Amino acid sequence: MTHKLSDLLSYGGKADGDTFPVTALFHEPATQKLRYVALDIGGWLQRNEVLVEAERMGQVDPSAKTWNVRLAKDELEGAPHWDHVDPAMAFTAWPPLIVGPFGGTYSPLLMQAQLAAESHDAERENPEGLPEEALRDEQGRMHQLEQTEDWLGREARTQDDGYLGRVHDVEFDDPPRTLLNLLVERESGAIVSVPAAKLRRVDEQNRAVFNGTVADYA
């Protein structure tokens, strides 16, 4: 079973019986894994978006349009705020040590350092077997985190410069931890599913370039 990005963004994160709008998802392009979910816990009059690690998100209930959060409401209130800047930087706003939901302690700054180390490891290794071009941007820098919604409307082409269409939606696996498919709308209006693993690179014109030819995705 898969979950579409458009659906997840219409659901509410459920914690302690309350629900909070899901406002954004962030994935790691090098591994195509979901890393963070942004929730708006501010209520009707004030927007207050916080970042929750994907590992803290539980089961999705499409019938109730909710996404369980494995954090208490007071822990959400102490989560890092997202001010629409690099989500990894938000961890610097947390105190040096935090008590977790089961009494254990962990350091947000250590978590941030771990993120940087993982990014460095991805530069040395390619565990998903992705082409090297898919791991770097046009300046040769390693990708870190990307807001998944940025894919919507992006032009999709094949490596022989064939036009596929534009990205209409994104599919994650269940539980939603990995980006599986990009749903591309063709000029005819038909929607074709393009495996994310086929991504070769994002070029200087911000177009997604996939392996193969247009005929491979008919």
TrEMBL record:
It comes from the Bacteria. InterPro entries: PRC_barrel-like_sf. This is PRC-barrel domain-containing protein. It comes from Tranquillimonas alkanivorans.
